[in-house]
Design brief:
Blueprint (H helix, E strand, L loop, with lengths): L5 E5 L3 H12 L4 E5 L5 H7 L4 E5 L7 H11 L4 E6 L4 H9 L4 E4 L4 H14 L6 H19 L4 H8 L3 H8 L7 H11 L11
Parallel strand pairs: 1-2, 1-3, 3-4, 4-5
Helix pairs in contact: 2-3
Amino acid sequence: MAVAVNILVVDDEPDICEYMKTMLEASGYGVTTLTDPTQAIEKIRNEEFHVLIIDLMMPKMDGISLIQNIRKIDSDIAIVVFTGYPSVETAVDALKLSVSDYIKKPFDPDEFRTKISEILKRKGLYLNPEEELHRTIGHNIRRIRKDRDLTLKQLSRRTGLSVSLLSQIERAESSASVSSLYKIAAALGVKLTVLFGEY
């Protein structure tokens, strides 16, 4: 079933919260972040989230304790643990609490997004096809542009499209016209169909 997917990120480092928010919103997800784990339970009770992404090492409350408390009120929600300090002990503790994945920081953003997508599919949730297409196009444009060592400004000059429009297309915040996509593909030196990936 296609739904608007909401993700809650709990990490005591504001920079990581900001990074996760930017990265996941670019994939079309709704993202809420918390730097205080003690606020998470109330947030989960009052709002609907499909995935929780929780850091293990936090002051006030560690990730395992937080997950134990979450499981008392929601046994089904998908939980992804991510940590800069992985250990066999915490991995075993997390798996006993039915977490969907245990990820070591730093991680590859593309692999992380793929894991989130797989978790959602296992839960029977995914973005609607149009959102998924915009996300795929944006992701492919950004990847090819970076492979070519081009800035948004340089791509803007080559296509005649504004930097802000190109940025919105890459972040899947704006649907691009066929004409715009043709200009982008030509500027990147690829066939138009390459931008659509598997679609």
